[in-house]
Write a structure and sequence with these properties.
The protein is mostly beta strands. It has one helix and 13 strands. It is 12% helix and 40% strand. The strands form three sheets. Strands 1, 6, 7, 8, 9, 10, 12 and 13 form an eight-stranded mixed beta sheet that branches. A three-stranded antiparallel beta sheet has the order 4-5-11, with no helix packed on it. The protein is globular and about 45 Å long.
């Protein structure tokens, strides 16, 4: 059995209007969230989307008959998530919704502030054939009922390196603030007005 390596990085993944995403240095990353966004829906009131990426030199291993051997991602402290029927994931990923803070952690355990025992966690395990990076693994989502969208999601992943060793990675994916999106929209409008004014002056 391979040894376990660990990387703990505050990634700061930020999605901006679907057009671009601002990411920190992922040199130590393996299996990670590349982008997160939140959409308002009628009932429940928010849907949270996560794009999962596998970096070069790593793979995710699966075992349909023994989920305990599968590589996975656990998202910690998802406030107000709906327990049944609102999660979506690509094929061959199995979800475990843990309202009582039960679920797997990459080894070693996450930093203490990552996992509040009073808030539930969500885990997705890979059950299919081995996947080798680099590749986009797809989009995952879960709906929540809370007063305001969650600002950031703490997560831990387990993947496998080229030597067959299990590798733990801890990161934080940040959701863009509404004010940030509003300023971006105003900035684009301002650029349009400036260009229009210049065209008039040139005419």
């Amino acid at each position: 059995m391979g040894s376990v390596k660990t990387a703990r990085v505050a990634t700061g993944c930020l999605a901006v209007l679907f057009l671009s995403n601002l990411t920190a240095d992922h040199a130590d990353a393996q299996l990670r969230i590349d982008r997160v966004r939140v959409v308002i829906v009628p009932d429940p009131n928010f849907e949270n989307f996560f794009d999962l990426v596998l970096d070069d030199g790593f793979k995710v291993e699966g075992d349909f008959f023994n989920p305990a051997l599968c590589d996975f991602i656990t998202i910690y402290d998802v406030e107000g998530f709906v327990l049944y029927g609102t999660n979506n994931q690509p094929d061959n990923w199995a979800v475990n919704l843990a309202p009582n803070n039960v679920g797997p952690n990459p080894a070693p355990d996450p930093p203490p502030f990552f996992d509040d025992p009073n808030i539930g966690n969500i885990t997705w395990r890979w059950l299919g054939d081995d996947l080798v990076g680099p590749m986009m693994l797809g989009q995952f989502s879960i709906q929540t009922i809370i007063d305001a969208p969650q600002a950031a999601f703490k997560y831990g992943t387990q993947s496998t390196d080229a030597n067959g060793d299990k590798v733990a990675f801890y990161g934080i994916a940040y959701v863009p603030e509404p004010s940030t999106l509003a300023l971006a929209s105003l900035g684009l409008t301002g650029l349009y007005l400036i260009r229009r004014q210049r065209r008039r002056l040139a005419a």
